[in-house]
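Readers of this paper often ask what the protein records in our data store actually look like. Nothing more is needed to write down the fold, since each code stands for a local backbone conformation. Below, we set out a record of this kind in full and without editing:
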Amino acid sequence: MILKKALMAALCCVTAGAVHATDRIDLSTPEGALKANRKIHCSLKDNQPIFYTWEGEVFSQRMGEPDRKLFKVSGMNVRQCVSIDGGKRGTGYRLVSREVMLYLDPKTGEPLDSWHNPITDRDVSVMHVQNDPVNGRPSFPYTKDGTPSLRWTGREDSGSWFMSVTFPLFYHNVLQGDYQKYVGGAYQATEMFNFLGEMDDLTDAGKDTAQVKVGWVRLSQWLPWMEMQGREGKLYTHAAGKKISGFDALPQVLKTFINSKAPLYKAPPSGDDKRRNETSWTYFKKHVKDGRLPFGGQK
């Protein structure tokens, strides 16, 4: 009887170990890489709202003068993923989201309505980021001919994972004319992200989302509401953040702004959202055109 119990216990242990092994996401496969990416960016569950938040600072950089800290920033993104049947491409997903980022006084941390531009010595109206939507392209594990198209690009070290993603941006500037490829004026920026977390958490197939921390750097041209009128120089933003449990876990400055001025940002867009993505530049153009915000507030 004792031997039988010992054998049964050993069998249970072996079985439990086998179940545990199969409950891990295999990052070496296209399907595993897709699941890991989806756990990082949203959730394996369709239509599950996921919140990210970040805080940081914005600096100006011009030739021949020290960099200036212009603003603090506090931002959030609310998103969800939906599954897509890609046929030979396999089951993929699409991410839909919208985001807010507030430009804050670097001393008080309060949102700015107007700002004294120290470079031009003029007062201007501040337009906070309210981009709706910010949607991603569909992601699939295979190409149309069935060959693998996705691989895990992160790296592991001592039980942690790290992933760097860089987006060089160069596209038509909606505030410029029709001949940008001849005379310039295209919009140019670079977005650099570092995502990190724990391997056990990421590869646990029993968890639909991963706990993620993120670092973000953005190099860009002057913001249009700054009214820089073609002056030399650029902006850089340096921020860090993480995935959070929900709206209530956002910093108070964001909750106050969203509750009072932008309640739409409490939830992501619908999973079948087909709208074109919004940027700070397209949003600015819309509001300047219809005159709903008092830009150009020179004093």
About this structure: Residues 23-290 form one domain. The chain has one domain: 23-290. The chain has six helices and eleven strands. The CA atoms of residues 33 and 152 lie 5 Å apart.
